[in-house]
Queue: 3 jobs
Job 1
Amino acid sequence: MTPPQIVGYYAGWKDTTVDARKLTVINYAFVDLGWSLGGQDRDNLRKLAALKARNPDLRLVASIGGWSSSQGFSDMAADPAARERFIAGAIAFMRQHDFDGIDIDWEYPTAIGAGCDRGRTCERPEDKRNFVTLAREMRHAFDAAGARDRRAYLITIAAGVDARWMYDNGSAAWMRELAESLDWINLMTYDYHGTWENAAGFLAPFARDPADPWEWNVVASVEMYLREGIPARKLTLGLPFYGKGWIGCTAPYQPCTSPIPDPPESAYPFGMLTDDGYLMPDKDGNHTVGGRGFERHWNPLVRAPYLYNPDTKTFITYDDETSIREKLRYAKSKGLRGAMYWEIAADRHGVLADVVSRELPR
């Protein structure tokens, strides 16, 4: 039986401490193969090399793209010569830095997420088919390079989790074909609701609350992949180590005044929630006690916690030890490949990483 994968994203712009014993794979985000590495990247790569030297079973994967850096994928994937250059650059990077694979975070084929610079073409109707071609060519080249280097190079992707991602003109055939070239797929089973909306919702609901106007959740997303023939062993379940918040809210799914203006992007890393007193441990050591005027609530339908301050009408959605355990037990029951989390530094004391490591022993 294949041991479970535990994949943690290492955000290169953050000060990150890693306990590599709790991981099987570190995805270093984000690498731009077309540019020389900056000073922080070089420092981070030295740290990662040292981790791997101490933990020979740890694998390092370079993540390329992301929300704000996916503009070039459509052009590259559409051009045979550009695909060849991309693949050659990826292999050269892996060999130079002793990396074990490439993770493509294309957000998103046919529907660019963060916008497109004027004069560029950042999305095409053919993107999903071109993605299949790119992955096949990568698989062939990576396997050939691996045979020469006596190692197995990984190809993974970060994937969307609703019908807009899955279907191409009504068909999921492209996704099944893409999966054939991949070692596994990191499902981004979070951001179902966020601060692009003016109503409070759950960031990563496990299951459906009928009061939620959005139909997607962890179970719905995983079941869609399995129903469309994607093998369970090729899926890792994404876990958020951060929260989101709104002010002026009366209840979940109701209009709020606005997303919280501070912290930036209304984001609450789990380590911030515990360090700044929003969450405190109970007698069992789990963070189920609210502080700073917040009450901690549990929604039994979505199987997720939230914090609410009735005086300021502030709502914060996040995952904690209890909700993470629920999701991991579901992942095991479905035979998934393991779990992925975004991102390591958000859980600065390793509280949630400990839960993942205990629930998915290697």
Job 2
Amino acid sequence: MRLLNFKKLDAFTRGDSQGNPAGYVRLDEGQRLSEGEMQALARELKGFVNEVGYLSRAGDRFHLRFFSSECEVAFCGHATIAIMYDLISCDADLLDTPELTVHVKAGAMPVLNRVRAEDAVYITAPRPEFLVRDIHVEDVATALGTAVATLSQELPLEVVDGGLRTLIVPMETLADCLALNPNQERLRQFTADHDFDIVHVFAEETIFAANAYRTRVFAPKYGYLEDPATGSGNAAFGYYLRRHDSWRGDIAVEQGPSRSRPNIVRLKLGEVDGMERIQFGGPATVRIIGQYCLHGDQAENANRCPENMKTADHP
């Protein structure tokens, strides 16, 4: 049996809302886990956290690997936010480091440290792709289980890839947005039929005046109906707002079904290689601190991951 440093973190919350859960294993210097062991731990935590991140450090070089209950994940936005926020907050030297680079399967990822100034860390979304899909308002309303009249006509339906292929759906009112309760299987089939990953709905009305939009994100493709706080989905939304001249500068977005206790995802506009890029971020809250007891036979019971890893905010 080996003891691993373990935390359960919730991303995009200071503790006053649900957040998006992730497991965090920080490996001590020289400590190693096999892929089978990492997979076994993640599988055991299915239903408790969406992904488990494994962080190792060699000097100033950080490495992160993510595993869902099914397989390794090339990149996980909310887990990166949560783990890097916790890492920086707990290290006096890192608190004064404006930018770190963490290495994940998807490549080197810059992490902007704004913990002291804004109580947040940010990561930069990939370059956007605006995808052509033959999607009609009537079909979207049916898939969401709502009336056509609840969908706003002021801005278009559009599929934007900001890390995940995201259908952006404008709603007329906050009440319409909060009332949505789509059938999971019907919505999953709709996403499959039109070849995108998640559905992002938004309203311009918010509960708190400091926030710019209320959003909800549905992700039945990944085995559950709703994602409580989403990095790449809201990054796609930021690119959508820029394209349609609706960007209001740095903004905070309310997300989730709770009327009074939404999660908060922050969006900024940065520049990489001369191109505007959306940056998403926020804080994280520690829910559990302890040690995970890894037994020698756990890895033997873990199936091997498929060759193609997932990239996700959630699974």
Job 3
Amino acid sequence: MKRRDFLTLISIGVATVIVDGLWAFAASEHKYKLAPESLLPKDIMSASEEVREAYRFAIANRDTLRYIPCYCGCGEQGHTSNASCYFQDSSTPEKPVFDRMSLG
């Protein structure tokens, strides 16, 4: 086999691996826990899909969001963490009182 033919085969093989890897990455979906939409109040249910998904994520992952600071400047409103952007801090997971700030 000539050197040129060998390098061509190697290039095709590398390109195939890269394309296959990118296809697999693009086809994979992020998997994370979401609460059912039925837990959302009517005004949040009428929001965009992205906003509803954010609230559903917040319901299911509230304890984690409490450890993440909020970077949107809502600290002036008394928010203590990213969870505060979705819930009033005094509310409980069983009876969440939603904050409407994240509606936009």
